Amino acid sequence: MSTPTDRSSICVSLPDGREVALPEGATAADLAAEIGPGLARAALAAIVGGEVRDLSRPLPDGAEVRLLTERDPEALGVLRHSAAHVLATAVRELVPTAGIGFGPAIDDGFYYDFDVPEPFTPDQVAAIEERMAAVIEADHPFERQAVSRQEARDLFSDDPLKLERLGEIGDDEEITVYRDGPFLDLCRGPHVPSTGRLRHYRLLSAAGAYWRGDERRRMLQRIYGTAFFRAKDLRAHLHRLEEARKRDHRVLGKRLDLFSVQEEVGAGLVLWHPHGGRVRRIVEDFLRESLVAHGYELVYTPHLASEELYRISGHLDVFSEDMFPAMESGGDRFRMKPMNCPHHFMIYRSQVRSYRDLPLRFAELGTCYRYERSGTLHGMLRVRSFTQDDAHIFIREDQIADEYNRLLDLGDHLLGVFGYEYRVALSTRPEKAIGDAAIYDDASARLAEVLRDRGLDFEIDDGGGAFYGPKVDILVTDALGREWQGGTFQLDFLMPERFGLEYVGQDNRRHQVVVVHRTLLGSMERFVGGLIEHYGGAFPLWLAPVQVRVLPVSEQWDGSAAELVAQLSAVGLRVELDQRDTLGYRIRAAETMKVPYMAIVGEREAEAGTVAVRARGARRKQVAMERGEFVSRLADEVERRVLAVRG
Ligand SMILES: [Zn+2]
Ligand SMILES: [Zn+2]
Asked: pTM here?
């Protein structure tokens, strides 16, 4: 690059390699204008030497600059952070005494936390959204200013939360404030040029949130919103949210009578009602059957253990914040089990193992207890007591590739049956890994080879592995396109050492085993909660708590209907006879409960030995079917675990 000799000008380079000379002090906005009027209008921010910055900041000489428009993904976060400031501007205009906390952009939008005496009502949120339109209409420029610590203290003397944040900014860091019209915020930026750039936005909800997520600190009121550059993106997002709301497992769990969480029992403690229990049992039966077929042994271990066990495992040192406190009894200290691993290790260690015994696969539907903060609890998805689909596999080092192939086979089978798409990620050695780096890297390389050989298009999270070994993650995508943790296959070179897990090799010497911690479905709570949302409560036939409702047209046909019920239950189908109220009522009730099939019996059907079948989602369409044929068709659909219900 040519260095300009004229001290009053600078030179910057663009992504295509082009160089542009500008007067000293020129900003990214000036650069955009220099390139063309179209870009001058479209530019929102700039990436200068890798950092996203305001358009209004002067460019350093020699910088590499990329101007951001709404087509660049980096610009969306800038817009949303600016939207958070617009929100705070509106709130301050309506509630001048509101204290202000943090207001970041997040994955799907933005939020701002306010210190106000009362929670925001829906009417207030609507008024705030309306007020935001006025702030946008005014088109206030976002003005950045670097200030001294003392200046910042004076500016925010009424805002204790901001002062606290100010105290954490290091002496070597620049302190900046941003102003848009009447609103001033302690903020690192960057922002779009002015409030008028925000056009397609929506406030979504308001909820209490502890300052800094700490339940010992004061409760603030958080307002969530979202913003997009294009109206159609906002519409699509709101539609997705609406779909997710309709599928919310807490709402469906109540309506379909699947589970509950009750204050008297305790936060984060799930009660499985009979119909939820049926779904869980079917999932568990299917899982156990698959595990046995894949060479697992099922073990059972208690819900609590002597604290000594967790001292050996090291959990007491590194995991105690997530464990429930100790219980004392007869001078012994016990802990509720936070994970199943140490118990399974003790089973392994209970006898001498030979190289011929390996691999040994111990599986358990093991219930664990972890102290999750009350603010993070969420229906069945984030709980304090959960039953893990857990297993520990004890292998020799030369068996790693083979065992991971088996795990991937099993995962592929299980997830396919539930209708989940998935992708795979491999996490490799971090800086702080313990033990021999060569062993760790060699294992990672072998895992990568396994994934490649299977033709999987996998991601590598370089350095993202645990300090004791690499892992393979299965990430599933549900019907709404959301991603969930679907399984983890974690290699462990550390625990075998801590617990002295060995085998006698062909050479008659003792060797250390390698452990694989693996979960496929996660926990029953999270998996079934996820299934409820994945299917929107409309379970496929094989999982449905009630598979068929038999509806007599009138009392006269109760006998014929009861015969059909007997026929269906004889082959193990879960069937109910509904004799309540009118036929119309019974049909609506079956639809609300998302029962896969309705079997209607009236005069014609009773005489001909047939049944009028209504499939879920087929609306008023009814198909007349011979009874034997109906029963065997359903039995076949269950057997093959067919996902769709056929009308
Ligand atoms: Zn900010
Ligand atoms: Zn484990």
From this structure: 0.81
